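Researcher: Next entry: Mannosidase beta like (Myotis lucifugus).
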Amino acid sequence: MASDLDFSPPEVPEPTFLENLLRYGLFLGAIFQLICVLAIIIPVPKSHEAETEPSEPRSGEVRKPKAAAPTNKRPKKEAKKKR
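Model: Predicted structure:
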């Protein structure tokens, strides 16, 4: 009766290269997503240098008025005659 029981580990095939690639790719993708979510949730303080030296002067900046919408070179089509 004791000889009928088989306590050997089950035969599990070794994972193939593609299975390993898929497994680790999924882990890397999950880690990347967590980093992206944490980057959105946790605000990054701006450096002090960026506050003192703005790249674009905002006060006293002279803005050019936007150019008018381009005019069409072609004349407008006339309405079709009703028959």
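Model: Note for the record: The mean pLDDT is 77.
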